[in-house]
UniProtKB/TrEMBL annotation:
It comes from the Eukaryota. Keywords: Cell projection, Cilium biogenesis/degradation, Cytoplasm, Cytoskeleton. Pfam families: B9-C2. PROSITE patterns: C2_B9 (PS51381). Residues 162-186 are annotated as: Disordered. Belongs to the B9D family. This is B9 domain-containing protein 1. The keyword Cytoplasm applies. Residues 165-186 have a biased composition (Polar residues). It comes from Paralvinella palmiformis. The keyword Cytoplasm applies.
């Protein structure tokens, strides 16, 4: 949701550790351009399915989805409207996540005016940079909208590798599982 803009398209990239490989699907892509809905919600609906399969023997560097949104400025040039990142959920099932989007800011008023005038706003040369923590403390950013992403996660052979990825609410509901809860009266 980007309330002050009328047209948005998103590009996506997956960032992951060195031990991870993509066995099927696309690591990056671009959606269609969407117009803001005319109802009171004023949302953009992309309905763009991403289908990707990862393989690894190590959870370090768990995959992250990096989304960067683009739109046109008053001069018709395509400029970045926001960056957002989230880890792919570690438990199987359906997950809805809201990604807070942000844009880099110019460091001075003069640079801000100049970047507006020539339609060259600050942006990352490598969008996956937002998936790492390095250098984030020196980057000036401004919050700008959000994107809602729905994940449908399937895992395979996690138990064989020694990992239990069963959601805690499912584990507690299984027959024979034991739970302990403190009573407010005790």
């Amino acid at each position: 949701m980007f309330p002050e803009f009328d047209d948005i398209c998103c590009r996506y990239t997956f960032a992951c550790g060195d031990d991870w490989t993509v066995t099927s699907g696309l690591e990056e892509g671009v959606t269609q351009t969407s117009k803001k809905s005319s109802d009171g919600r004023q949302i953009f609906v992309l309905n763009f399915p991403l289908d990707i399969t990862f393989k690894s023997t190590n959870p370090y560097g768990w995959p992250q989805l990096v989304v960067h949104a683009y739109g046109s400025d008053v001069f018709g040039k395509e400029i970045v409207r926001g960056y957002g990142v989230t880890h792919v959920p570690i438990t199987p099932g359906r997950h809805v996540q809201k990604l807070a989007m942000f844009v880099p800011e110019s460091s001075s008023r003069f640079q801000k005016f100049l970047s507006w005038f020539v339609s060259r706003r600050p942006e990352y040369t490598d969008p996956t940079r937002v998936a790492s923590g390095e250098g984030r403390e020196v980057t000036r950013v401004r919050s700008q909208g959000y994107v809602t992403v729905t994940f449908n996660v399937v895992t395979k052979d996690m138990k064989k590798m020694g990992y239990d990825s069963t959601p805690s609410d499912v584990t507690n509901a299984l027959p024979g599982s034991q739970t302990s809860a403190a009573s407010p009266d005790s």
